[in-house]
């Protein structure tokens, strides 16, 4: 399948170079084509091409393709390569022509001989000087730049027609795929397109302060399980495709890949100077690079550095199966950099104008089909050092209201170059594939699994979420839940939802409903009201769970300790203020109806204790996430953290007594900080800090209850050896940290490195306590004479647990061994535990 998406690369380079802003005058003659071996038909890399009797020439790329631009004409073209007989082809007196050359191997083949200069390969001197000068060429050092971006994404299922062992034909899945419409590579092997998209956008970036903005102008997408191209356009646009090799690391597939032009170049890579070649009229050093250790998570490939200014002109970087990335057979980034005129400087600046990313997946089993994804991004109308006002860059990612564009005429005019016949067929074939009943069902299953909702067709309603449909616990018995919500077919501004739930044991109906309205889309502002009446349990509030929907669904199973019924009303306003700031204001009213022995002291002489209470609470929440991008999916919005900047959330809650029957006046403050950063070759560290304080005297269910975890599964934002509702605090500071060494250790052990295991270390600390006034609120018995259940608070000693584990077992599983170091004498606790988690991990 690989030749299908690569054989047009040379032609792409030629056409794109004529569309953008060249520094030099355009030549009058263009000759292009492909040079192949007469015996094998394979492309011959680095073959020499020259016009006879002239001083201009070029070399072919790794696929044998070449382009020769010249202001001089001639009568013949000479094609030569080491180990092949020279060929001469006559030239026609025209400005543009294509000549495909076929070379015959010589009778005597020479072995490759490498000659290095005394004192080491001269490539190191060149790379060292190129890195020293990188501030002159790094786009991040510019005051600002902007361009129009065209991106195209194609995804295929391939390798399904291969024969199995003992000469057997393809398996059941292979036979099914073989019946679908397909395109074919030059070897006659079929590939089924399952997704194709095109996106046209405007991209802006400035420094000091660093800001980016992308406005998706037009998009179209077609694929299995894809109903709207807007999400794909946002996730595949230029905002997520900034592969700047002058940075120390290239972030790709959530991996930090060291750049051969980054600070760790000499530690990780070895370099070889191969030749000097002419690219686009510029003489360049051709330098090969590869990791010092084959299993290192690093690139191998070729870079071309111009000989005069020592700036990056072109790079071809690859990662193969030897690197520690799951499900990947090969990753390839091919990028061209081009000089762009800058009216504010005497010299030109350089920017990447063409990027091609290819991801060829490794088959999960020997007989399973594979997949191939190709991303093509081209820039044009580039302008540099003309920054916009700071507020212009908010929001950083924006989808135009009229982004959907399906007219083929529009895309023909906007594409940087004409697509090949096979690529044009892919747009047509993918529509046929997605309408095959099996593929249509498969797409619905994938969409239901990822989104959690199933669309009900023309009524513009979705049913779900799937995870919350059923549970079993000691209070409700069998719990059944049915939820509905509207989608964009109903309205792009009104969002309605609700659910009904019923337990076979308590025979009680629970319900919930919400109405949201999008006031503005720029900046995004939404107002909503919510009402629920449902069963809850202490210690598993939405604030504690932190958006962990899987764990939230699991907490409704099993034995529910300290359950209570809650009537909840919420009115809120949420707005994105720009600069990564999101502000939420809400007024909440809730009741607490315990299903366990509970009471608290009150300052009412007529009633010494109370069992039920109601609170009215005003909440102000500010979230600061610099560099993050908000992606719109139907009527949902989710955040993609794309930088190493910390994310800070501050929340203030004010209890209002007597308003809407509120029983308490109180204050609560909380702060959450999450951060992830690279520690060079040592791996990546993630940590979060939680702190809070409540100076008021209130019943303990209103205090902070740390999230415990009594399951066999590891939960990222919980204390994994702490029981549910084991501690209560009114002042606390907690730190959770994890460092993943990735392949630093196991990649160096011969017998284990093939497993691609990754070693990690974890730790969690919680300090806190409860005031005497809050402790004194608990009476010995309630009004019925039942003993009131109390709680335990932290003493001067902090709660501490540490762990170590192995990630990427069978590419899916993670196993952590965790030790509890303090409060080891508490009843019914575990001082050591093995926790398992699983997810698709690259």
Automatic annotation (TrEMBL):
Domain of life: Bacteria
Keywords: Carboxypeptidase, Hydrolase, Protease
GO molecular function, one term: carboxypeptidase activity
Record-given protein name: Carboxypeptidase-like regulatory domain-containing protein
UniProt source species: Larkinella knui
Taxonomic path: Bacteria, Pseudomonadati, Bacteroidota, Cytophagia, Cytophagales
């Amino acid at each position: 399948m690989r030749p299908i998406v690569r054989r047009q690369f040379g032609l792409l380079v030629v056409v794109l170079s004529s569309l953008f802003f060249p520094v030099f005058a355009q030549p009058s003659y263009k000759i292009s084509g492909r040079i192949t071996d007469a015996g094998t038909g394979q492309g011959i890399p680095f073959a020499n091409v020259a016009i006879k009797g002239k001083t201009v020439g070029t070399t072919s790329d790794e696929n044998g393709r070449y382009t020769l631009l010249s202001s001089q004409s001639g009568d013949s073209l000479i094609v030569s390569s080491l180990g092949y007989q020279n060929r001469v082809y006559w030239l026609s007196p025209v400005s543009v022509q294509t000549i495909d050359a076929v070379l015959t191997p010589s009778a005597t083949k020479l072995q490759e001989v490498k000659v290095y200069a005394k004192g080491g390969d001269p490539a190191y001197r060149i790379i060292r000087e190129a890195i020293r000068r990188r501030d002159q060429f790094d786009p991040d050092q510019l005051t600002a730049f902007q361009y129009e971006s065209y991106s195209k994404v194609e995804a295929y299922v391939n390798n399904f027609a291969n024969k199995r062992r003992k000469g057997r034909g393809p398996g059941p899945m292979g036979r099914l795929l073989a019946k679908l419409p397909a395109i074919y590579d030059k070897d006659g092997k079929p590939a089924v397109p399952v997704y194709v998209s095109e996106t046209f956008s405007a991209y802006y970036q400035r420094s000091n302060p660093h800001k980016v903005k992308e406005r998706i102008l037009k998009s179209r997408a077609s694929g299995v399980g894809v109903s709207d191209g807007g999400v794909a356009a946002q996730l595949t646009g230029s905002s997520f495709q900034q592969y700047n090799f002058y940075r120390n690391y290239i972030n790709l597939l959530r991996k930090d890949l060291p750049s051969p032009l980054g600070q760790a170049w000499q530690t990780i890579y070895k370099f070889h100077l191969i030749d000097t070649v002419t690219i686009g009229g510029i003489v360049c050093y051709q330098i090969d690079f590869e990791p010092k250790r084959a299993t290192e998570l690093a690139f191998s490939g070729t870079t071309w550095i111009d000989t005069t200014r020592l700036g990056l002109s072109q790079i071809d970087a690859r990662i193969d199966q030897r690197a520690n990335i799951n499900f990947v057979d090969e990753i390839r980034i091919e990028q061209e950099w081009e000089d762009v005129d800058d009216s504010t400087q005497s010299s030109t600046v350089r920017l990447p104008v063409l990027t091609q990313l290819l991801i060829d997946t490794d088959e999960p089993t020997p007989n399973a089909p594979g997949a191939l994804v190709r991303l093509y991004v081209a820039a044009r109308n580039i302008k540099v050092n003309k920054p916009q006002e700071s507020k212009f860059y908010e929001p950083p990612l924006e989808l135009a209201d009229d982004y959907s564009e399906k007219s083929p005429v529009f895309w023909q005019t906007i594409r940087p170059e004409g697509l090949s016949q096979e690529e044009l067929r892919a747009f047509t074939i993918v529509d046929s594939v997605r309408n095959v009943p099996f593929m249509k069902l498969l797409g619905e299953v994938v969409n239901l699994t990822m989104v959690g909702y199933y669309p009900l067709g023309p009524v513009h309603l979705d049913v779900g979420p799937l995870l919350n449909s059923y549970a079993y616990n000691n209070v409700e018995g069998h719990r059944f839940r049915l939820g509905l919500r509207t989608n964009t077919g109903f309205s792009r501004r009104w969002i309605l939802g609700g659910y009904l739930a019923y337990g076979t044991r308590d025979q009680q109906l629970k319900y919930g409903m919400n109405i949201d309205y999008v006031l503005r889309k720029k900046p995004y502002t939404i107002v909503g009201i919510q009402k629920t009446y449902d069963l809850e349990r202490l210690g598993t509030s939405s604030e504690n769970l932190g958006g962990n929907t899987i764990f939230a669904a699991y907490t409704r199973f099993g034995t529910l300790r300290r359950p209570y019924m809650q009537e909840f009303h919420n009115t809120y306003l949420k707005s994105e203020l720009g600069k990564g700031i999101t502000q939420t204001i809400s007024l909440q009213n809730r009741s607490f109806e315990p299903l366990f022995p509970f009471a608290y002291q009150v300052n009412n002489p007529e009633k010494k204790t109370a069992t039920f209470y109601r609170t009215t609470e005003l909440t102000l929440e500010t979230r600061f996430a610099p560099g993050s991008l908000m992606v719109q999916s139907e009527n949902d919005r989710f955040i993609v953290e794309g930088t190493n900047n910390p994310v800070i959330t501050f929340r203030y809650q004010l209890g209002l007594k007597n308003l809407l029957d509120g029983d308490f006046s109180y204050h609560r403050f909380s702060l959450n900080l999450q951060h992830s950063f690279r520690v060079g070759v040592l791996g990546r560290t993630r940590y979060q800090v939680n702190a809070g304080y409540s100076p008021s005297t209130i019943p303990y269910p209103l205090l902070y209850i740390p999230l415990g975890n009594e399951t066999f599964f590891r939960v990222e934002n919980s204390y994994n050896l702490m029981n549910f509702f084991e501690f209560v605090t009114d002042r606390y500071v907690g730190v959770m940290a994890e460092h993943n060494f990735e392949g630093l250790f196991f990649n160096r052990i011969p017998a284990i490195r093939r497993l691609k295991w990754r070693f990690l270390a974890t730790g969690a600390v919680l300090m806190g306590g409860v005031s005497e006034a809050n402790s004194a609120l608990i009476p010995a018995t309630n009004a019925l004479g039942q003993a009131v259940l109390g709680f335990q608070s932290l003493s001067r000693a902090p709660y501490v647990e540490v762990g170590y584990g192995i990630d990427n077992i069978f590419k899916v599983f993670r196993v952590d061994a965790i030790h509890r170091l303090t409060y080891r004498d508490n009843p019914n606790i575990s001082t050591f535990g093995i926790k398992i988690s699983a997810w698709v991990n690259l």
